[in-house]
Amino acid sequence: MIRIKNLHKSYPIGKDSLHVLKGIDLHIKEGEFVSIMGSSGSGKSTLLNIVGLLDNHDKGEYFLDGKEIKNLNEKKGAVLRNKFLGFVFQSFNLISYKTALENIALPLYYKGVGRKERQKIALEYLDKVGLKDWATHLPNELSGGQKQRVAIARALVTRPKVILADEPTGALDSTTTDSVMDLLKEINNEGMTVFVITHEEEVADQTKRIVRLKDGVIVSDTPNKQRNPIKTVH
């Protein structure tokens, strides 16, 4: 699903450049649940941006679902993102003046789905994350955990092949973190590839494979035998 070979990325800083990714090799198969761990400055967000087609790499190869990704313009990148990827962010990125249902339906609007069908599908996904009764509430009427569930439903609504979650529990308390991770486990158990960026050990421990980054290189890549059993989300 995601195959990366000898990936490099640098950013200009004045007359110099900062070499952030220094030859990353990574293969994530369809249906895997992988966490990318590393401290601030390790390169994990840069890696996510490249995998998420939000940034280009300088050198190396990146294949998404068998297609080589290189020199994408914004239009082509947007088409591929819409087709393959769903995003979940630490700050939720919900639109404040739209209801939970409208936020979830938005990606379907951009895909040209009619209003009635959009609402029907969005309600199904709201129900899937346990928030059907909150359909007409605005984001400021929801708790942090509820906002993140809405964001996950929005990411799922276009049925992407990969969910990219950037510090999805960073703004949540430990109990809410567990419920969000349980939801991501359920999604993964249904066959979706889930790719989580985190600096929290307790989050990484709930994924099936942990890749650790340090100073732009992978220092370990191991299956997680200690993975917690899934709890049912109500």
Cα gyration radius (Å) = 18 Å
Largest β-sheet summary: 6 strands, mixed
| Poorly predicted ranges | 228-234
Question: Which percent range fits the helix content?
Answer: 25-40%
Mean pLDDT: 89
The largest sheet has its strands arranged as 6-7-8-3-9-10
Walk me through the structure.
This protein is an alpha/beta fold. Helices cover 33% and strands 29% of the residues. Helix 5 packs parallel to helix 6. The relative contact order is 0.19. The C terminus is likely disordered.
Compose a concise summary of this entry:
The protein has 7 helices and 10 strands.
Topology:
Layout (H helix, E strand, L loop, with lengths): L1 E12 L2 E13 L4 E5 L6 H8 L7 E6 L2 E2 L5 H11 E5 L10 H11 L4 H14 L15 H13 L5 E5 L7 H16 L3 E6 L2 H4 L4 E6 L2 E7 L11
Parallel strand pairs: 3-8, 3-9, 6-7, 7-8
Antiparallel strand pairs: 1-2, 1-4, 4-5, 9-10
Helix pairs in contact: 3-4, 3-5, 4-5, 5-6
Identify the notable features of this structure and list them briefly.
single chain; 234 residues; alpha/beta; six-stranded mixed sheet; four-stranded antiparallel sheet; 7 helices; globular; disordered C terminus
